[in-house]
Amino acid sequence: MVKILITDPLHEDAIKILEEVGEVEVATGLTKEELLEKIKEADVLVVRSGTKVTRDVIENAEKLKIIGRAGVGVDNIDVEAATEKGIIVVNAPDASSISVAELTLGLMLAAARNIPQATASLKRGEWDRKRFKGIELYGKTLGVIGLGRIGQQVVKRAKAFGMNIIGYDPYIPKDMAEEMGVELIDDINELCKRADFITLHVPLTPKTRHIIGKDQINLMKKNAIIVNCARGGLIDEKALYEALKEKKIRAAALDVFEEEPPKDNPLLTLDNVIGTPHQGASTEEAQKAAGTIVAEQIKKVLKG
Ligand code: NAD
């Protein structure tokens, strides 16, 4: 019987699919040592983003054939080490695009209208109608960095708010951007200069690390709002902190951080920073889809 080890919380429908093809063990919250031990016996490992499937974990596996990542980013999996051992890595790249796009729009609106700060104030018993004056999305320019699955969903929704969209993505053809109604910009600095709102939807790679650094932030408008629902490492947090502290830009709305969970992150002490704890894919719909898509893929691979 195929042994399937699940080490992060997985949707019940996904577990049901996996139970059709093997003996399932759900063991969440394992220590590294426990994982190194348990992995020896597993034929299939299913994770979300919590479990770090590092080289030593993969090397300890004696029977492992498939690693399933119920979600998009596989940065918690050493794919190179897996490939060297002939282990197949499957994921669900489409499952959470709409959820992340909706959170992005939610954060844009929340930052533009100071919704979290106003809620906190209201709950403190205050009635401060002047302090939270915001700005509209309508008629503003949105700069989208990365026009892949999520970026495209953001574009569609932002257009409904009457925004003008400019985009930076050197890997998509110009006519594709035109079809989406996006003006493609081939210089990220130009996008930073022109945008009122900037949102990031690129993967974190050595090339995209700190794609928004001090130089880019210095080019932004005084009223610029930056949203990051992709990966923390895309923004130089130190530079962002300095700019927000000195009010060189208006606000930041962050779902992701360079270090997660953030430890003494000074950004979180600022009034013009709002955020969520990596909630982009955290919806009923996305989690069900991520789990079931990966479970179906695993089933297919096992059945050959
Ligand atoms: P995708 O692969 O469909 O799109 C990424 C786009 O980025 C592509 O169009 C690619 O051409 C572009 N790109 C790559 N390198 C670039 C560069 N140097 N400059 C500009 N563009 C570049 O990915 P996606 O599904 O849209 O997801 C985007 C990212 O969102 C993921 O990599 C992941 O890190 C993040 N994400 C976050 C959450 C969350 O919970 N907050 C959930 C899902 C995904």
Describe this structure in words.
With 304 residues, the protein is of the alpha/beta class. It has twelve helices and twelve strands. It has helices at residues 12-19, 32-38, 55-60, 79-84, 97-113, 115-123, 149-160, 174-180, 188-194, 214-219, 237-245, 284-302, and strands at 3-6, 23-26, 44-47, 66-69, 88-91, 141-145, 164-168, 183-184, 197-200, 225-228, 251-254, 273-275. The strands form two sheets. The protein has a seven-stranded parallel beta sheet, sandwiched between helices. Strands 2-1-3-4-5 form a five-stranded parallel beta sheet. α3 links the parallel β3 (44-47) and β4. α1 (12-19) packs parallel to α12 and α5 (97-113) crosses α7 (149-160). The two termini are 15 Å apart. Bound molecules: nicotinamide-adenine-dinucleotide.
Brief account:
Helices cover 37% and strands 15% of the residues. It contains twelve helices and twelve strands.
Which segments are poorly predicted (pLDDT under 50) over 5 or more consecutive residues? none
Structural class: alpha/beta
| Bound heterogens, unique | nicotinamide-adenine-dinucleotide
pLDDT averaged over residues: 97
Strand order of the largest sheet: 8-7-6-9-10-11-12
The level of helicity is: 25-40%
